[in-house]
Design brief:
5 helices; Pnp Oxidase, Chain A; alpha+beta; globular
């Protein structure tokens, strides 16, 4: 199973945002979007604040493949849907902790039922 290296974990944990490009049906990448992400148990997770109707989420669900650029880490990734409630709670806590300086209203948008329903684990793939 593919995992994040210690160097990747260190670099990515030092930043607040990553650039995420989802893959089109023809295998090319869409233009990247900037998104918040969290690390739980040395795994990275993202959420679509707009939930399953969000554009980048709908694109991600089509192929489950994309690319990230984060703090000098560039990786092809696989999107895996998250449904485990225990992990969801840890992700909620991580978002609230990591982004608390942005204000409660903004951070709360990452832990709504719609955002939780659009949670992915990012799994690195071979380049």
């Amino acid at each position: 199973m593919n995992t994040w290296t210690n160097d990747e974990l260190t670099k990515m944990n030092a930043i607040d945002e990553l650039h995420l490009a989802t893959m089109k049906q023809d295998g090319t990448l869409r233009n990247p979007v900037t998104i918040w992400f969290v690390c739980v148990n040395n795994e990275f997770y993202i959420r679509a604040v707009k939930g399953p109707t969000g554009l980048w989420y709908r694109h991600a669900i089509e192929r489950h493949e994309g690319h990230i650029d984060a703090g000098g880490v560039t990786k092809n990734i696989t999107f895996t849907e998250v449904r485990d409630e225990n992990i969801m709670k840890e992700i909620d806590e991580s978002y609230q902790s990591k982004y608390s300086n942005y204000g409660a209203k903004i951070v709360t948008s990452t832990v709504t039922p719609q955002a939780r329903a659009a949670t992915f684990k990012l799994i690195p793939r071979e380049q």
